[in-house]
Amino acid sequence: MTVQFQSLDELDEVSRRLLDEAGTHHIWLFDGEMGAGKTTLIKALCRAVGVVSVVQSPTFGLINEYTTKQGEPVYHFDCYRLRNETEALDIGLEEYFDSGNYCFVEWPERIEALWPTSYYQLHLSADDTGKRTVSTVISSP
């Protein structure tokens, strides 16, 4: 699926469409250039799944945990500053992936060998006018 949008006002609808397409896939891998809108889209997705915590980029902490209205955790990873995949293993990445909870991963290309067999991948891009494009791929075993 490919979705395009120009305004932040469209993000809630875009999020609902993406959640519908992803279905039961809870590992979401977000790639795109710096400034493409990965964190902004993740904030909208967190709203859509009922997160009540403040959502912000986990750039310095590598992972943020949010809580939904139902008390379920949602995990948000930023792998940009990881030096290697061992660091991801040290923070327990595989356990988070195996939890069954939403895991939103920015800069997943830094940990490609650790990707699970089933995931929902999103590529974000922005053009000179500010129009954003989200292209998705579902990978299932």
Protein architecture, described:
The protein is of the alpha/beta class and 141 residues long. It has one domain: Rossmann fold (3-Layer(aba) Sandwich). Strands 1-7-6-2-5-4-3 form a seven-stranded mixed beta sheet, with helices on one face. Strand 6 and strand 7 form a beta hairpin. The mean pLDDT is 95.
In short:
The protein is an alpha/beta fold. The chain has helices at 11-22, 38-48, 85-90, 93-98; strands at residues 2-5, 27-32, 63-67, 73-78, 103-106, 119-126, 132-139.
Quickly list its features.
about 140 residues, alpha/beta, Rossmann fold, 7-stranded mixed β-sheet, about 25% helix
Computed over alpha carbons, the radius of gyration is 14 Å
Number of separate domains? 1
CATH class: Alpha Beta
Profile the largest sheet: 7 strands, mixed
Number of helices: 4
Distance between the termini: 19 Å
From the spread of the alpha carbons, the general shape counts as: globular
CATH topology: Rossmann fold
Write the CATH architecture name.
3-Layer(aba) Sandwich
In CATH, the homologous superfamily goes by the name: P-loop containing nucleotide triphosphate hydrolases
What is the mean pLDDT? 95
Q: Topology as H/E string?
A: EHEHEEHHEEE
Which structural class fits the helix and strand makeup?
A: alpha/beta
Helix fraction by DSSP (H/I, runs of at least 4): 10-25%
Strand portion: 25-35%
Side by side, the strands of the main sheet go: 1-7-6-2-5-4-3
Number of strands: 7
Low-confidence stretches: none
